[in-house]
Amino acid sequence: MSVTEVDPGPKGAAHGSDLAVETHNLTKRFGASVAVDGVDLLVPRGCAFGYLGPNGAGKTTLIRVLLGLTRADAGSMSLLGYEVPRHRDVALARVGAIVDEPRFHAHLTGRENLELMAAAREPAARERIGPALERVGMSARANDRVAKYSMGMRQRLGVASCLLGDPQLLILDEPMNGLDPGGMHDMREMIRSFVAEGRTVVLSSHLLDEVERTCDAVAIVDRGRVIRQGPINELLSGANMEVQIECSTPDVARQILASSGFAEPVEVGADGLTISLAAGSDRSIVAELNRVLVDGGVSVYRLQLNQASLESWFLEVTTRLGAS
Amino acid sequence: MTMTSNLAVGARDHRGSPIPTGAMIMTRFMELRKRRGLVIALLAVNIGLPTIFLAIRLIAHAVAPHSYGVAGGYDIFQTLIVAVMYVFGFIVAATLGCTAGSVDLSEGMFRHLVVTGRSRLSLYFARIPAGLMIIVPIVAIGIIIICSVCVFAAPTKLNFDGANNLSPGLSRQGFITWAEDHPRVAVCDMGYQYNKSSSSTAHVNCGPNNEPVVVTNRSGSIIATPATKVELRAQAIKSAKQNYANYATTFLSPPIKLMIETGLWVELWAVMGFLIGLGLSSLMGQRTVPVVLLIVYEIVLTPLFSRVGIPHLINVQRGLVGLAMAHIEPAGLPAVFGGMNGGNKLLTESTTVAIIVIIAWIVIWTGLGAWRMATRDA
């Protein structure tokens, strides 16, 4: 990444912020329903940030508020350090976004649609049409009418439209929707390459696996509220782990562990044991388990420590919150 | 691709300004002109219909000149302008306006454009010159075709109220002299409105077999006796005097001044149709209902409420833009939507009020559309 020049920008704009997106107590209501409920969101620059939540959690509404597509009822927000909506024109000049599914004028070609969008940006945006199409792999089909495009091609065209403004921040709402496995892989690679160039990518999705593979940090949103946010590895370090043990006599192994004072829950299966470890447990406990079992005369064939996945952690967090 | 630009570009290119850039206007023009169905409809109504009509008349006259009259002339000009260009030109222009005002929303492009940070007002205002770049030339071409054929294929002799082979451009005295020389034609072919209060007196009329007779009403019974040459000539002079005003505004071909005025008047109405359609569809966020409303307005409501005065609502009716347009219609054209020769007269309105109404319609609909565009959720 190279940002060769940074203008001071409009007077009063906090352009030097380390945060690409910052919201405080952001609220959006639709009648009695609260779609975004006092959200405090901090997205650091230069990372891929996942905005995770089930369908109807308010992900798209938050994006629409950030981009000025709809008005917030309360709270404050800034993009790339510029307070919006006050400096919306300056902030959005370096933001690219896809909101909901990417839709275009179907009677125009992909290139013509991009020309329409480039015209609303600075003159240099027109020169970026070709490179943007090439980058998303759409050069060969750029002169076909969008009516003939598949969903995946429209997604790619949507990403190309984001690149017209040479964005420092990309906001992609469910970009994997409608993509086949190959397309999802390409999209993942593209997002990682954007981050490698120093751009910030905010990725809204309900596909936990994709977010875990793509993003550095996440925020979990449920019923309009952000319930957790931070780097994925830090969040998962607070999640439970489990040890799977394949051994000769699982029942005997269980008795040995119980008599040795292991208090963690143990499940006995046909091939061995599964032991749940509390969050933050030290890795040395795995070696200790092995030693106790071998000393007790149990043959241990395999020991595996499983870190919780984002999916299991997400379910754990949301289940806990739902229960409380 | 690497990031090489700076953040304040949005401030430098005046992205918050409501004034659209040339590139925005040209790309919007491209988007509209590539709507094939709509552009074909525009071309068919404004150029196709008059062209086909005139072409058939040209061919028919060329093949059988004694059976079919010349293709052009003043009458044809009047008919095509008032019955085709004025009415249908408005409707297709309004359809284009409704399309320009609603498709970004319905086709999901509005949010793509809003997230560029560009002022919503400039996105809206870019549609006005873009749409006019389509409407104005198409209407102009249609009018030029009509004017050309009507001038170059005009008759050489005037056909005035059934009086064939009448020379055009006669003075009042010349017209009276012609009537004296052709008393039978003047009496039998040209209309004459008798004064009802003098219906009991004798007057010359055309009897059976086109024979001039003196009609006398005696105690309720009508008596017709053959007219003498003196009586016939006297009636011809009276008929010529009464018809001169109409004759003076009847031409072989449309005068240049009338063609220019008519062109501007039809263009103005088409522009109005586009702007009203644009504003209304932007306000409603859709195309179909505004198009239907404007067709009903043009075909039903305007003719009705321009002529039938409703007590206590007369001043509201005077706010109809169709009535205002009718009041600035160039002299020399028949009244739009009929109403002449015994039909209901237009509601009265001064030219000043008509101009104010037209300006108000442009400002109000454009303002409403712009306001909704600036405030709606994208």
Short note summarizing the structure:
Chain A is an alpha/beta fold and 324 residues long.
Characterise the protein shown here.
The complex is a heterodimer of chains A (324) and B (378). By secondary structure, chain A is of the alpha/beta class. Chain A folds into two domains: 19-236, Rossmann fold (3-Layer(aba) Sandwich), CATH 3.40.50; 240-307, Reverse transcriptase/Diguanylate cyclase domain (Alpha-Beta Plaits, 2-Layer Sandwich), CATH 3.30.70. Chain A has helices spanning 59-66, 88-92, 110-119, 124-127, 129-135, 151-163, 181-196, 208-214, 232-237, 250-259, 284-295, 310-323; strands at 19-30, 33-44, 48-52, 74-79, 82-84, 95-98, 169-173, 200-205, 217-222, 225-231, 241-247, 266-268, 272-277, 300-307. The radius of gyration of chain A is 24 Å and the shape is elongated. The relative contact order of chain A is 0.13. Residues 1-14 of chain A have low confidence and may be disordered. Chain B is mainly α. Chain B is built from 15 helices and five strands. In chain B, the strands form two sheets. In chain B, strands 3-4-5 form a three-stranded antiparallel β-sheet. In chain B, helix 3 (36-63) runs parallel beside helix 7 (127-152), helix 4 (74-106) packs antiparallel against helix 7 (127-152) and helix 11 runs parallel beside helix 15 (351-375). Chain B is elongated, with a radius of gyration of 28 Å. At the A-B interface, helix 2, strand 6, helix 3 and helix 5 of A face helix 1, helix 2 and helix 5 of B.
Low-confidence stretches of chain B: none
**What fold name stands as the CATH topology of the largest domain in chain A?**
Rossmann fold
Give me the count of strands of chain A: 14
Number of domains of chain B: 2
Number of helices of chain A: 12
Which key features would you list for this structure?
heterodimer; A: 324 residues; alpha/beta; Rossmann fold; 6-stranded mixed β-sheet; 12 helices; 28% strand; disordered N terminus; B: 378 residues; mainly alpha; 3-stranded antiparallel β-sheet; 15 helices
